[in-house]
Amino acid sequence: MKTYEIATIPGDGIGKEVVPAGQQVLEALAKTSSTYRFNFENFDWGADYFREHGVMIPDGGLDKIRNKDAILFGSAGDPHIPDHITLWGLRLKICQGFDQYANVRPTRILPGIDGPLKRCGPDDLNWVIVRENSEGEYAGVGGRVHQGHPIEAATDVSMMTRAGVERIMRFAFKLAQSRPRKLLTVITKSNAQRHAMVMWDEIALQISKEFPDVTWDKELVDASTARMINRPASLDTIVATNLHADILSDLAAALAGSLGIAPTGNIDPEHRYPSMFEPIHGSAFDIMGKGLANPVGTFWSCVMMLDHLGETDDAQRLMRAIEQVTANRAMHTRDLGGIATTAQVTQAVCELLTAPRQRKAA
Ligand code: ATP
């Protein structure tokens, strides 16, 4: 029997509610498997840890999770600590420390969920956004001088490397090739950003030659927001820079019905380090501790984790259970207009996974 070693890092806010819910669902799934089980180790890193120790992760923290098979993450953010400290101190430290250079964000309108687009049928919106996750606008290159003086200056330099762009383009083309429509849209802004984004476009063209069966096009990031709303079915796989994809994927999540259902994986495609899976929503302090958090984004992230671990059958089984639960409006949390609690949704998914009669259907 194989044991997958999983690090859980709930982080802050509702991360502390949805990560245990995700663990519960994974445990329910493993209970029915004769080939694998999970061993979870929890890490209390985040804003509370920062208040006590002055850092989000202890020294040598990454070494404690380096040999895990995967990481299930909640969120990082606290109303009393600047966002750049929580983001760079925890999430980005892990993403960059483990070179998780491909951030993958699937978006679909799940059964039972009403998206806000009137003219969009459930099959018209089925996207995967690939976000470059190691450089670009989040490279961390920059500085601030003469603070507090009239001559104060600050820079954040978006840095792109040929190696970094080639590997994310290759990943995106490969992903597009694996999907039925074999369709990729490369998001750019090379009209205004005439150095790095021009290189981005050139490398897209170069890599496209390795994938002659993939149809691809280029779209300016501003135009792509309108296209997502007016012609959602014209998109399938999308690749964009770190910042562009960050913004587009929040829009995508909203168009699919709620931020609460959207998942993401921070992937090291070469499997040198553990990859990290998390809901895309943040810490949402406004609903924290009330049992209102929608755990579906975390459950879907668990599906991505199972796929990454090679447990593709159980990934599909969990996805079907999630879809059966979202199809039942009585199981909608407040963000979807319902009154169900985190615990009720979690229990409903676990029951579907473990009930002998329903196991096959799920
Ligand atoms: P952060 O500052 O950590 O990024 P945030 O507090 O700005 O997070 P977001 O996660 O960006 O919050 O979400 C915005 C709002 O959407 C939240 O305040 C919350 O009301 C709602 N929301 C987000 N995630 C969920 C969820 N899983 N379930 C229910 N509502 C959610």
One letter per element, helices H and strands E, the order comes to EHEHHEHEEEEHEHEHEHEEHHHH
Q: Which residue ranges are poorly predicted, with pLDDT under 50 across at least 5 consecutive positions?
A: none
Radius of gyration: 20 Å
Oligomer: single chain
What is the beta-strand fraction?
Answer: 15-25%
Average pLDDT taken over every residue: 95
Provide the CATH topology of the largest domain. Isopropylmalate Dehydrogenase
Using the coordinates above, name the CATH class of the largest domain.
Alpha Beta
Going by CATH, the homologous superfamily of the largest domain would be Isopropylmalate Dehydrogenase
What is the number of E strands?
12
Keywords:
12 strands; binds adenosine-5'-triphosphate; 22% strand; alpha/beta; Isopropylmalate Dehydrogenase; globular; 12 helices; two-stranded antiparallel ribbon
Which SSEs are present, and which pair or pack?
Layout lengths: L1 E10 L3 H17 L4 E7 L4 H7 L7 H5 L4 E6 L7 H15 L4 E7 L17 E7 L3 E10 L7 E7 L2 H17 L4 E6 L7 H13 L6 E6 H10 L6 E4 L1 H14 L7 E5 L7 E5 L16 H14 L2 H15 L15 H13 L1 H4 L3
Parallel strand pairs: 1-2, 1-3, 3-12, 5-10, 8-9, 8-10
Antiparallel strand pairs: 4-5, 4-11, 6-7, 11-12
Helix pairs in contact: 1-11, 5-6, 7-8, 9-10, 10-11
